[in-house]
Amino acid sequence: VNQRENTMNWSTYGEYNAYDGNDSLDYLPSLPDYTEDLSHTHFHINFLYIVSMLIYSVVFVLGVPGNAIVIWMTGFKMKQTVNTIWFLNLSIADFLCCLFLPFSIAFLAMDHHWPFGYVLCKCIPPIIVLNMFASIFLLTVISVDRCLLVVKPIWCQNKRTASMASVVCLVVWLLALFMTIPSVVFRTTHSDKYTSKVLCTTDYSSVAGYVKTAIHVFKLVLGFFLPFLIIVTCYSLLLFKVKVRFSKSTKTFKLILAVIIGFFVCWLPYHLVDIVLLVMPQETWLIIASHLSESIAYINSCINPIVYVIIGQDFKQKFKKSLMTVLRSNFTEDSLHGNSSQCKTRSSIDQKSISTNV
């Protein structure tokens, strides 16, 4: 689903066709140099598409059932706490992203033909944008939440409740939907003039040229760099405040940190390629790199359930437990004992205990 604007189609002599879930710019590279070995280049392009389809298939097979299990357990089987609400919403975002991957696989298998109609063209490609913004906004909120547990423990005793977490998640989803609007508005279908294929493209022809650049930069800043700055600041404050090493962290802290690292590792190549494409969009190797970076970004949607199982105790010990026991152990609120009263979210916010358990 998430192909940058536009995907190489050699049947049209180097002209790009688009199926861009991320509202990247329309890239129209020069016609290929016929002194080059085009058959060799064509082979690499086709090989890349095969690799992408394999990655999408693996992500779909692992991500749909994995995230569905987490949603079922955190949403229906476990007591609603702040932590379970965070991870429930993260899993919903990843589940939606994985669920529509067969459309992307079919799109590549049919050599960039979109047979699913105008309405689905408007709805399905923006799903990856929604996933990106919802995930990063949720991870930012979770980081702020962990920081507040240490910096403002008394406030947490009175205000940090499951109901407040639900309201925050609702706001996050509304913001993510708002950030996805450009991807929906500028999405359209049209017929390729050289072939009979129907293309699902992002069309900015009705607006000034700077608009698509502004949208692109806006996505980079709000979807990656600003959240990254906030998250780094929060965890820097945590480390400065409690003066502990990661090895002494609670399972919940380790789990959150692993999810955050996984997100940025998977999405960093995507954003780096996008930045370079703003400068030299006609480089064929960059278009190839963009496909690879998009495939890597999709991997993030299936790894979190795996991380939930592995983080904490030894994997072999956890493998012997029921999945319910594993998730309950990882998502439980930190029990921090001390002189302060019990937090409404079942977390005892004791300063001395925080310094060794956050």
UniProtKB/TrEMBL annotation:
Its main location: membrane. GO terms for cellular component: plasma membrane. The keyword Cytoplasm does not apply. Residues 334-358 are annotated as: Disordered. It is found in: Cell membrane. The chain crosses the membrane at residues 47-73, 85-110, 116-144, 165-186, 220-240, 252-273, 285-311. This is G-protein coupled receptors family 1 profile domain-containing protein. Residues 66-308 form the G-protein coupled receptors family 1 profile domain. It is a multi-pass membrane protein. InterPro entries: Formyl_rcpt-rel, GPCR_Rhodpsn, GPCR_Rhodpsn_7TM. PANTHER family: C5A ANAPHYLATOXIN CHEMOTACTIC RECEPTOR 1, CHEMOTACTIC RECEPTOR. Belongs to the G-protein coupled receptor 1 family. Gene3D superfamilies: Rhodopsin 7-helix transmembrane proteins (1.20.1070.10). Keywords: Cell membrane, Chemotaxis, Disulfide bond, G-protein coupled receptor, Membrane, Receptor, Transducer, Transmembrane, Transmembrane helix. One of its GO terms (molecular function) is complement component C5a receptor activity. GO terms for biological process: chemotaxis; inflammatory response; phospholipase C-activating G protein-coupled receptor signaling pathway; positive regulation of cytosolic calcium ion concentration. The gene is LOC102360304.
